[in-house]
Every structure is written in C-alpha cells, then in structure tokens.
Amino acid sequence: MKTHNFTIAAVLFLFFIRFVTINTIVAQTWKTPMEVANTGYITKSVTDGFFINDNEGWLSCADGIILHSTDGGASWRSQTSGVTELLQGIYFTSSTQGWAVGANGTILTTSNGGSTWSAQTSNTTRQLNSVHFTSGTQGWAVGATGTILTTSNGGSTWAAQTSGTTRDLYSVRAVSGTVAWTMGGFSTILKTTNGGTAWTSQSPET
To answer: Are 181 and 191 spatial neighbours (Cβ–Cβ below 8 Å)?
Structure first.
C-alpha cells in the first residue's frame, strides 16, 4: 500500500511540475511581451515547454506558434509550424526529433529540430493536450473527453485507445513502451502496464 501511494504521489508531483515550472519561469524571468529574434514581440500564451539539454528547448504557444532556444532561454526564435491552432503540448526525443499537439486533433512532427514541421493524421478533431514518447517510434497523445492516441511508428499512424473516462486528460508520461500514466480533470489518474491495451483508474488519497 505504501508503494502504491508513493507512485500516485510521484505522478501527481510530475503533473504539477509540468504546469507550475513553465508558469513560474515565464513570470520570473521572461518579459511580457516576449521578444523573439526573428519575429519581434509576441504576447501569445505559452502552453508547454521542453528542453532536451541545458541549452536547447522549444515552447508551444497559441496560434500555432513554436519557439526555439539554443542558449537556455536567453533568446528565442519562432519556427514555422504551418498551423494556426492552439498548440498545447510539445516533446522531443532528441535535438532533431519532436512532436507538438493541440486543438482540432493537431499533431505535428519534425525530424530536423523544428526547421520544418509537418502534420500527422490523428483521426480526431478533439483537442490534444499532451504528448510523450519513450523512443523515436513509441508514443502517446491525450486530450479532451478521455481521448488517448498511441503510435508505434513515430506517428505515421495513430490509433485510439479506450480510456474508460470522458474526463479531459491534460498530461501523459511513460516510463517504457508498456507502462504509462495519464492525468486529467476531477483527479483522474489512469495507468497502463500493457502499452494501453487497458487503462485502469488510480485514485489519489486525500
């Protein structure tokens, strides 16, 4: 029982950090509006961020904006996403390979660090809020009304999984190709140990 409680607490902590860290950094160290080297000043909401190392990172924003830094966030340059939808989540497995997700089932991928982004077919119009990959091929995306999508080929194809909930899902994190968690509204925590064939509910104790 203690191990089970610790696991849930750890997952909730990671979920909390995803939002609080980005908001805290923006509030404390970034000016509003944010100066972007090749665009000027922008005032769009920053929804998610991911750094692959101490220097290089990306931000997903409203209106399809993706920002890229190679100096630890001291300066940013915009990348052409090719979309205008709200982008809610972004994740990279290397300095070249990454994905971004957002409104209307948007999934974007890059194989060159964001120099170019291309759309992938999600087969959903529901908003996607988070994306996570355990390798260059295996990943998940989650979103509105219990949406869970998975891919085993880097996003060339995405397949829906049965979440068992209609709650909005806001974050997904995996530790292997079989074990993953997704978290969402009304204290929703779901876990899979078989790659998403089945998702089971976990309830945080209060």
So the answer is: yes
Name the residue with tokens 């295996």: 138
Residue pointed to by tokens 């000016």: 31
Q: Are 170 and 130 in contact (CB under 8 A)?
A: yes
Tokens 């925590």 correspond to: 189
105 vs 149: CA distance, rounded Å: 10
C-alpha distances (whole Å) from 201 to each of 30, 38, 173, 182, 196 are 38, 45, 15, 10, 13
What φ, ψ does residue 195 adopt, rounded to 5°? 75, 10
Q: How far apart are the C-alpha atoms of 140 and 57, rounded to whole Å?
A: 20
Give the chain's residues under pLDDT 70.
Answer: 1-34, 37-42, 205-206
Residue ranges with strand state E in the chain: 34-36, 40-42, 46-51, 57-61, 66-69, 77-79, 87-92, 98-102, 106-110, 118-120, 128-133, 139-143, 148-151, 159-161, 169-174, 180-184, 188-192, 200-202
Note the pTM of the prediction, 2 decimals. 0.83
